[in-house]
Design brief:
The chain is α/β, with parallel strands linked by helices. It has 2 domains: 21-174 and 223-289, Alpha/Beta hydrolase fold, catalytic domain (Rossmann fold); 176-213, no CATH class. Helices cover 42% and strands 18% of the residues. It has an 8-stranded mixed sheet with strand order 1-2-4-3-5-6-7-8, with helices on both faces. The chain starts with a helix and ends with a helix.
């Protein structure tokens, strides 16, 4: 009897394991824009190898100092995605996670690291060509944390033709006063010298490159019609040092009548917060994919 139970348990474990989506870490794409190989990790649905279907895609962006393994290791994306799908709260999807270094997901002022061009013109087409994606805007979403939250807003607002949904978590949103008054040590530590350059007159950090990539500036100047072609889900903890910028973005979008969801939950700028946020992100983007 004991052997029978053990055998049945092994069968059950095998079935459960087979039904789980899987992660493949640190693959690479050779980028012409960046002139180097860029690593990425990918989550593939449970039935990816056997199904004839094509899947919607979520691009999940890491934060400052992390890489393509941030979400897979600290964020437990495989476990959380499998559980959320098993509960029926999210649809089967592909999740692509590129290594952005400290590029902040934008094109730098000097034109040496055009990561935004790489992402929109090279990485997305690459994923669509290699994997069984549904390549239309309606089946593509972007999300991320901190620096990746900033990146997801950059992509969702500057390239609304590419994404159905955008879900920034604890996004690095700063207003002009904060940037103008940022200590030079912080400016250098964040690599903003390379990204935004320096204005030799007036408030030196408020450069042309900064204004091109200021979330609040983009949100204020992009047409409401364009912004409303993307579903936005903005989430930030009440103890997060970035909460003020997220609240200012919420107020601006509200005043301009841009449709969005805004959440302030108990928590800080850490992985515990982002892991608890991920199920809602998966649910939100899944609702965007449904027809």
């Amino acid at each position: 009897m004991k052997k029978t139970i053990t055998f049945l348990s092994l069968i059950l474990i095998s079935i459960l394991t087979f039904s789980q989506g899987k992660i493949i870490e640190s693959l690479s794409i050779q980028s012409k824009f960046l002139g180097k190989a860029v690593k990425y990790s990918i989550y593939l649905p449970a039935d990816y190898e056997t199904s004839q279907r094509h899947y919607p895609t979520l691009y999940l962006l890491h934060g400052y100092s992390d890489d393509e393994t941030g979400w897979t290791q600290f964020g437990e994306v495989q476990k959380i995605t499998n559980e959320t799908i098993a509960k029926g709260d999210a649809t089967q999807m592909i999740i692509a996670m590129p290594d952005a270094g400290v590029s902040w997901y934008i094109n730098d002022a000097a034109g040496k690291v055009p990561f935004e061009d790489f992402f929109t013109k090279e990485f997305i087409p690459f994923i669509d060509s290699v994997y069984k994606t549904r390549s239309k805007k309606e089946y593509r979403a972007v999300a991320g944390l901190s620096m990746g939250g900033y990146g997801s807003l950059i992509y969702g607002m500057k390239h609304p033709e590419l994404f159905a949904a955008c879900a920034p978590l604890s996004a690095a949103v700063w207003n002009d006063d904060h940037i103008a008054g940022m200590p030079q040590t912080d400016w250098a530590n964040y690599k903003f010298n390379e990204l935004f350059g320096t204005n030799l007159e007036g408030r030196k950090h408020l450069t042309e490159a900064w204004y091109k990539n200021s979330i609040l500036k983009i949100a204020a100047t992009t047409s409401v019609e364009k912004l409303n072609t993307v579903r936005f889900y903005i989430d930030c903890g009440d103890d997060d040092f970035l909460i003020k910028g997220n609240m200012e973005l919420h107020a601006l979008l509200t005043d301009r009548k841009v449709n969005h969801e805004f959440r302030i939950r108990d928590g800080a700028h850490n992985w515990l917060y982002w892991r608890t946020a991920l199920p809602e992100v998966l649910k939100f983007v899944s609702e965007s994919f449904h027809r």
